[in-house]
């Protein structure tokens, strides 16, 4: 009987761990930054457009639980956050929970990095996580 209790407890822990991850994403889903391109230079002192690309997956606002969908998060000058936690919301992690596929941002002069990370209806990275290549731009 004790063996069965141990197995049941282990299965419960596995179920809780799985639930902590984001919703499933198609393994062939691809996020990318359509503009600016890696190595681009943008003008300082005014906002510039960033547009988000996504293939083999749909965009849905936060709170909408529909299979193989999510919303964009733009990471500015930061590494990917832990992929088993909710995506932070701060000046380095911009959320686009209404389903936006582009934005206007202004950055100070210098070199910056941009990267997209998809989040599910609860701002959790998907399983497997869907993120773009990190690009570098110069604001001058």
From TrEMBL:
Tagged with keyword Signal: yes
Keywords in alphabetical order: Signal
InterPro entries: DUF4399 (IPR025512)
Signal peptide interval: 1-20
Pfam families associated with the record: DUF4399 (PF14347)
Residue ranges of every copy of the DUF4399 domain listed in the record: 50-140
Top-level taxon in the UniProt lineage: Bacteria
Protein name per the record: DUF4399 domain-containing protein
Species of the source: Noviherbaspirillum pedocola
């Amino acid at each position: 009987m004790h063996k069965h209790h141990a197995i049941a407890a282990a299965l419960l822990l596995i179920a809780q761990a799985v639930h902590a991850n984001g919703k499933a994403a198609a393994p062939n889903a691809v996020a990318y930054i359509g503009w600016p391109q890696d190595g681009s230079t943008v003008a300082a002192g005014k906002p510039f457009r960033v547009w988000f690309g996504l293939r083999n997956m749909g965009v849905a606002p936060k709170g909408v639980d529909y299979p193989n969908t999510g919303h964009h998060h733009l990471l500015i000058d930061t590494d990917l956050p832990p992929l088993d936690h909710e995506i932070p919301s701060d000046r380095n992690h911009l959320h686009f929970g209404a389903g936006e596929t582009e934005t206007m941002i202004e950055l100070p002069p210098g070199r910056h990095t941009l990267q997209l990370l998809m989040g599910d209806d609860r701002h959790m990275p998907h399983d497997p996580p869907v993120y773009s290549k990190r690009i570098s731009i110069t604001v001058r």
